[in-house]
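To the wet lab folks,

You asked to see what we're planning to order before we commit. Fair enough. Below is the target structure as tokens, and below that is the sequence we designed to fit it. If anything looks off to you, flag it before the synthesis order goes out.
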């Protein structure tokens, strides 16, 4: 269980969800400009789950996914991952590079340009969330340049779990939905942020928000 001094309450999660939706709105604006089409994005919920449950919500520890990793630096420190199922990653790349990938048989993930585009989307999404968190807390928060990989969920997030597991067996999951405005819900892209603040940063976040 999480060390008592780092324990998150329902109020904390509600605050993170609200910040997530503000960040999602900023990200949707940036993606709409990038794609030259209206994009809607929202955070349906933020939850605190065990490490085992985290693997389950991502489809299982051995499920191969597209994972974008970055380090959080500044007044807050920690690790952040954005994990997408491979079919969602392909769909997102096709939206970004539609003219280049009209052929459905073409695999965007095998193309360097497609991978670079996906990495840039990860940068936009993570940057928007962290910018919203920075605005709320008035803290300096700087993301590193994201790296991208295609591997099993367990392998992708194992690095971030090493430090976190010293203090907790739980992780913050920020569920995210991206969809074209007017399109059916079943065409939406669902991804998940896994947020692992370094332990002292929990108190820094909520002290700055007045909800410690």
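Sequence we intend to order:
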């Amino acid at each position: 269980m999480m060390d008592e001094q780092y324990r998150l309450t329902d109020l904390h999660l509600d605050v993170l969800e609200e910040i997530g939706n503000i960040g999602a709105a900023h990200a949707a604006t940036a993606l709409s400009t990038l794609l030259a089409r209206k994009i809607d994005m929202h955070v349906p919920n933020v939850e605190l789950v065990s490490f085992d449950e985290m693997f389950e919500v991502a489809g299982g520890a051995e499920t191969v996914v597209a994972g974008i990793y970055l380090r959080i630096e500044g007044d807050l420190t920690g690790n952040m991952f954005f994990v997408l199922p491979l079919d969602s990653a392909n769909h997102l790349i096709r939206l970004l590079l539609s003219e280049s990938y009209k052929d459905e048989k073409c695999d965007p993930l095998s193309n360097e340009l497609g991978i670079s585009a996906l990495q840039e989307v990860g940068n936009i999404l993570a940057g928007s969330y962290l910018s919203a968190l920075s605005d709320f807390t008035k803290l300096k928060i700087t993301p590193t340049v994201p790296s991208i990989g295609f591997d099993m969920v367990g392998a992708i997030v194992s690095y971030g779990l090493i430090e976190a597991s010293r203090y907790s067996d739980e992780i913050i999951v920020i569920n995210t939905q991206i969809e074209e405005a007017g399109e059916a819900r079943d065409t939406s892209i669902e991804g998940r942020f896994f947020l692992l603040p370094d332990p002292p940063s929990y108190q820094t976040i909520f002290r700055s928000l007045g909800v410690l």
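Structural context that might help your review: The two ends are 19 Å apart (CA to CA). The mean pLDDT is 81.

Thanks,
Computational group
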